[in-house]
């Protein structure tokens, strides 16, 4: 496997991701920010952050599969959430959990979450991008 996820001693353990990823593969994959569009370009989950997070993760999974990768190959996830407030974290976690259950994986790569003002499509509440490495 090209990716090892680690929680080094001296850093807090975060339940939904690891602090460090070590990649030893030769093929670097960058997945563009995925929003809550289905395959037809229709927004999923209008006004529902959890549903949109779920769709974003499913879209990342589809993008990875399209190049022979899975969430096990992901070394970094970045999430941008419109009008972020910390009390919305349970919705984010719910969306991730629902996507993980559908995908049969636990996305645990190091992750960053950024609160932003808006995305390019007003009904989109979240965007998720990924970097992966393959052998």
TrEMBL record:
<dbReference type="InterPro" id="IPR035959">
    <property type="entry name" value="RutC-like_sf"/>
</dbReference>
<protein>
    <submittedName>
        <fullName>Enamine deaminase RidA, house cleaning of reactive enamine intermediates, YjgF/YER057c/UK114 family</fullName>
    </submittedName>
</protein>
<dbReference type="Pfam" id="PF01042">
    <property type="entry name" value="Ribonuc_L-PSP"/>
</dbReference>
<dbReference type="InterPro" id="IPR006175">
    <property type="entry name" value="YjgF/YER057c/UK114"/>
</dbReference>
């Amino acid at each position: 496997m090209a990716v090892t996820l680690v929680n080094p001693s001296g850093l807090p353990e975060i339940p939904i991701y690891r602090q460090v990823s070590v990649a030893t593969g030769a093929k670097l994959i960058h997945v563009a920010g995925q929003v809550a569009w289905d395959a037809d370009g229709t927004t999923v989950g209008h006004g529902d952050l959890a549903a949109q997070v779920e769709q974003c993760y499913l879209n990342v999974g589809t993008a990875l599969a399209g190049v022979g990768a899975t969430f096990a190959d992901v070394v970094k996830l970045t999430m941008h959430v419109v009008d972020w407030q910390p009390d919305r974290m349970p919705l984010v976690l719910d969306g991730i959990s629902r996507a993980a259950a559908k995908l049969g994986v636990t996305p645990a790569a190091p992750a960053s979450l950024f609160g932003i003002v808006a995305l390019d499509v007003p009904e989109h509440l979240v965007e998720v991008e990924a970097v992966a490495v393959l052998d």
